[in-house]
Amino acid sequence: MVLTLKIDKLKLKSSSEETSNADDANCANTDDIDEVDDEGQNILLALIAQLRPGMDLTRITLPTFILEKKSMLERITNFFQIPDLLFEANFSEDPLDRFVNILKWYLASWHIAPKAVKKPLNPVLGEYFSCYWDNLPEGKSAYYIAEQTSHHPPKSSYFYIVPEEKIRVDGVVVPKSRFLGNSSAAIMEGCGHVTLGKWGNELYTMSQPNVYCRGILFGKMRTELGDHIKVRCEKTGFEADIEFKTKGFISGTYDAIGGIIKDSTTSEELFYISGKWNDLMEIKDAKSGKKRVLFDTKKSVKVKPKVRPIEEQWEYESRKLWKPTIDALSKRNHEVATKEKFKVEDEQRAKAKTRLEDGVEFHPKLFRLVSESEPKAEDLEYIIYKRFNLKDTPESLTHNVFDIAPIVPGQKFEEKFHIPAFKKHDSNS
């Protein structure tokens, strides 16, 4: 009750005129505004007073002023906003060049994030998000589908495909939040799989760095990525171990990375990686000692995804589901944002209670459990229910995508899309 009253009294930094006349440009910038003023700090302290080190934060309701204006399902699309890097990898004839370019694409994508300390909205069970790109290099298109396949623990499963280039990406984001005292940590247990059909279904697997929010109790709040990630291609034997270095209490610097690329079949060290994941990254040849720029994030050209109009969206599509909350966040009206967010979460609790009373299990609509015949995908747990053969024509692959869910304008969530994924799998395998 005390926490609710404090949220209601939160002093917004924008003027009333700005609040009532928020336009698209203003909405786009609010994720870059740090709104934790003195009153906001008091709200956090009231919340933290209830916590103990190591406590799971996934069931804690956070104040809305630290929320980004998008669901985690949409946040994942940040990784597909520098398509030229992914294409560069696919165009590389040499296997080692392909591996280096895949690593470059993956490392470069982490810098696409709000400038302020913000976290995406937690998707509700069964929520889904789809989008597309029709303006990629050489006029190519890409499609993305994601669904919240589990709520406790939260699991966001996603699928991305570029039919013309036979590029496919599958993944799952599994953040497990912990309170650490002056910091909170999101331990990222998910992974990503990149498949290059052009190169005989060459598969790259990658883990994720953990995310730390520092300065909750004292000091300036900021986000850090930390710990090691592994990127590996079993077919070629190349692998990378990259450390996202967190700043020490006395020494060190923010946002640094360092790591190595080696041939796992011979243990030969090939390249060393250094720099900052949100600035300049460099690569050094282990034999010659020659160093060059791997990627300069200041020169990145981002291609944002496109989404169907709100009026064509199903009630559980991310942007429609969270629209009242997002609109309030855009205007920095946190009282309304809190109420609208609670409505969505309260409905989620009611549905969970009904399922429990009726003895009904939840099944995702668009993703299915990985089968025993797919051992290379078992760490994903769920994959898109439709089976794709990257040897098929781009037209056939695109048709398969459109059979899964509405993605482009003019498509609506028709009755056929409501059939649970496990039933679709039984009839379409």
From TrEMBL:
The keyword Transport applies. GO terms for molecular function: sterol binding. InterPro entries: Oxysterol-bd (IPR000648), Oxysterol-bd_CS (IPR018494). Belongs to the OSBP family. This is Oxysterol-binding protein. It comes from [Candida] subhashii. Pfam families: Oxysterol_BP. One of its GO terms (biological process) is lipid transport. One of its GO terms (cellular component) is cortical endoplasmic reticulum. PROSITE patterns: OSBP. Keywords: Lipid transport, Lipid-binding, Transport.
